[in-house]
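Researcher: Last one for today. Full complex below.
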Amino acid sequence: MDTKVIKPEAEGRGDRTLKIVGTSPVRPDGVPKVTGLARYGADYALPGMLWGAILRSPHAHARIRSIDSSKASALPGVKAVITSADFPEQKYEFVGPERVAINFWHMTRNVMAREKVLYEGHALAAVAATSKIIAEAALRLIEVDYEVLPHVIDVDEAMQPGAPLLFEDMITRGIDPPPNEASNIAKRIEFSIGDLDAGFAAADEIVEMNFKTAPVHQGYIEPHACLARFDNKGQGEIWAASQGHFVVRAFTARLLDMNIGDVLVHPAEIGGGFGGKTVIYVEPLAAALSRKSGHPVKIMMSREDVFKATGPTSGASMTVRIGVKRDGKLVAADGVFKFQAGAFPGSPVMNATMCGFAPYNIPNVRSVGYDVVCNRPKSAAYRAPGSPISAYAVESVMDAVAAKIGMDPLQFRLVNACRTGTPTVWGPKHAHDGCAETLKALLAHPAYAAPLGRNQGRGVASGFWFNNGGESSATVHVNEDGTVVVATGSMDIGGSRASMAIMAAETLGIEYEDVRAIVADTASIGYTHVTGGSRVTYATGIAVVEACRKVITELCARAAMIWSVEKDQVSWEDGSARRAGAGKHEPLSLKAIAAKRALTGGPIGAEASVNAGGAAPGFASELCDVEVDTETGSVKILRFVVAQDVGRAIHRSYVEGQMEGGAVQGIGWALNEAYVYDDAGHLLNAGFLDYRIPVASDLPMIETVLVEVPNPNHPFGAKGAGEVNIVPVMAAVANAINNAIGRRMTELPMSPPKVLAAIHTAPGK
Amino acid sequence: MGGAPVRVVLISSHSGHYTGGVKEFEIEARTLLDVIRVLDRRYPGLGEHLEEETSVAIDGEIHEVAYFHPVHPGSEIYFIPKIEGG
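Model: Here's the assembly. Have a good evening.
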């Protein structure tokens, strides 16, 4: 790994006194994971446990005329069979914010089909039995009478008049007045600033291109799994890996018509999520089977289940037009982004429309999005949801524009880079820098000036992601021996236990090794939103620091009692209480005060809950070198550099790992990954042999440049670091291929057949 | 109220249903709670919509909608759609 750290002149608070923040201490989850001690959702078991199995649709689109489960129920060993009839109907309404507006009418149908199956793999019944074999045998005894319907998967085809309709009464939202006819277009959204026509009229050069991307899966290694049990008072417990056990609790309670307080969710270790585990699939089914059978029930998805029935991100069809003056200043941009939502509304197209042009200062912009349902699994969040897709189109056109006016592509971006005060297409002005700094870091990187060989090319691209804040809770308890336990409600998916321990140790002035960070269950800590949106180091970190500050206040009060002085005469420094302005007393360490806890009032601890705002967005600029085999169309990644503004790295190697991981996932998205369907809408590559994510031997060492423009709203300057790194990748790879072979690749994945076809097509065709 | 006017802009596409399409306002306010109360008084139901369905950008800084956020003379306040992460 080659890592550089660039610290701009604007230093964050207290930077020069930091002792642990920014280092890479031993990861608390490392040894348990590599030795098999970590307990994932599939590792839990209880006495009397049954095995659950799910019947899935063999059809992409069909009406369910009837389900007869009587033979399955009669099979010895079968203890419960459930269908949609075991779940209460939900009201048809969108609740919550527009982008993440939840319609429980949709959610309950995604978890268990009702009137129709809407994709191959759609669950429509489930069985609990004394063994896996019996449960699976019972599934084969369930008789379903289907009326097979025409299906549609491609987004452009799904938008056509006369396309098979998934919902015969769905009227497009976001159009005033609403259309009279039903369609698969769930929603239209539009953001704009300035005067688009005037902007393009003022342009010296205009480039317009069309793009398509394939749906791709998050590719987490751990399939969904959970264990659920109900007691005789109707209270339930769930052990599951997720990106948010409070969300699992809320959604499961809603689908089972329970009070939230009657569901307790224990967070299991998680084997990857990347956004795909912010929703529920098996949890309400296991809970319903447990409630019906009176036994604990465990359900584990297979890899095939994961591919066929859990959310990939959208495939898309996009048109982007950009106008520029000859001096390189952008004057206008227009984007139309059509996203597959999957079987139910809710693609990340709104994020795509907001993020695509966000890195740049463009006075006249329009960004239009369409959320389109089609017969494949409902899309779920995937690492900076939506932004990588629109960035692929925008950054490809940016590259073409730079070439057209003869400007260096990085300099072109730098000339137009957004800064504090630059307007965004969604209205407010940017409040933070970071974009230009990543571009400057890449310009200064030796890779940018390195020579290239035959059939080799270099591409660059930039990207934007919001980074989130929001609700988080943390507790800090001082143990009897002066060590400390930090508990949060944030699932640790990217190293948050380590970063929380670092921030606690730094704040308290103690050793990292004296802090143990854990993830508490839903009954043991305050509400905490999902681990997603690159929010945890920021928001939960603020909660941890606030709790530590409360503990410090209490420690000082205890010291004051021991010294018989007023509290305001005691301060906290380097892990010890000190009496201000006097040398009469030796400092009292945290351990010494902990030893006197009973004498001074009992256990010492504090809780903090926050709704953290002011999370600064993330920017990344990336460089990719490729070599194209002109005989096979195969593309080899020779070099990849990620320059990302991380605000302040809390645990450095975890941040580097995030940057490397984002680059690798984007490379897979760019070159290999795609859902492949047959004419009947069956997924043909529902396994890692045929759905090829990159492996180590496909890749060079990813080079990371940590650009640190601190966010003053965070105690240590942290910005979210988990997502923006994936945003520029596909465009950087496409631009590198274009640089190598002179062909603009406008459809993902850029697989060998497509590259070979492009090579054999005349330029510009 | 006694505070200086702040400029409020509604970006959320559903907000227009409450305001008859009006999207920009000048309001005397010291906190976001003041802003929401004034708008809800003028357009009944808009307050709940803003609380439940939007995020807010105060001088460019994005926050979840919460009553306690201070607003300052000349502040620009945009109610925007919420963002989801991965």
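Residues 469-612 of chain A form a domain with the Aldehyde Oxidoreductase; domain 4 fold (CATH 3.30.365.10). Confidence is low (pLDDT under 50) at residues 8-14 of chain A.
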